[in-house]
Amino acid sequence: MEFLEIGGSEPFRSYWEMYLSRGLLLIFVVDSADHNRLPEAKKHLHQLIGTNPILPLVVFANKQDLEAAYRITDIHEALALSEVGNDRKMFLFGTQVTENGSEIPSVMQDAKDLIAHLAADMQ
Predict the structure, then answer these.
(1) pLDDT per residue as tens digits for the range 31-67
(2) Which value, to the nearest 10 degrees, does the dihedral of the CA atoms of residues 72, 96, 36, 18 take?
(3) Minimal CB count within 10 Å: which of 16, 50, 63, 67?
(4) Annotated binding-site residue numbers for GTP
(5) Contact, 95 vs 60, CB < 8 A?
(6) What number of H helices and E strands is found in the chain?
(7) What would the 3-class secondary structure string for 52-97 be?
């Protein structure tokens, strides 16, 4: 599998659509503890997926280990994931870095397997 991480900073956003048109799925990562940026993340996510109504979507709600982090249901609501369309495969995972960073949490292994399956289905 090949991944292209473009980043969410303003200078990189102009590249999003160019690469997304060739992608097999969209993996969108949000900081669960950065409540102020979730409306901006929602806006950009819906702009991205609006161009392709069947592109599978995997959302990682990162930093779930932080006390200030929104929980999965809050992220689902904040990003309006119920509005992504009935024809789209959509998955939301809560993620966090392990204490020593060397061990892969089971949720990440599940996500990896799902991403491989979705990519194979789209080819």
Answers:
(1) 999 999 999 999 999 988 988 888 899 999 999 989 9
(2) -90
(3) 67
(4) 8, 62-65
(5) yes
(6) 4, 3
(7) CCCCCEEEEEECCCCCCCCCHHHHHHHCCHHHCCCCCCEEEEECCC
Tokens of 62: 């990162």
Widest CA span of the chain, in angstroms? 40
Question: What mean pLDDT, rounded, does the chain reach?
Answer: 85
One-letter amino acid at 77 equals E
Residue 75 · residue 30 · CB < 8 Å = yes
Domain residue spans in the chain?
18-121
pLDDT at 66: 92
User: Binding site: which residues?
Assistant: 8, 62-65
Q: Which CATH code for domain 18-121?
A: 3.40.50.300
Identify residue 78 by its one-letter amino acid code. Answer: A
Cβ-Cβ contacts under 8 Å for 84 (sequence gap 6 or more): 46, 49, 57, 90
pLDDT, one tens digit per residue, over 111-122 is 888 888 888 887
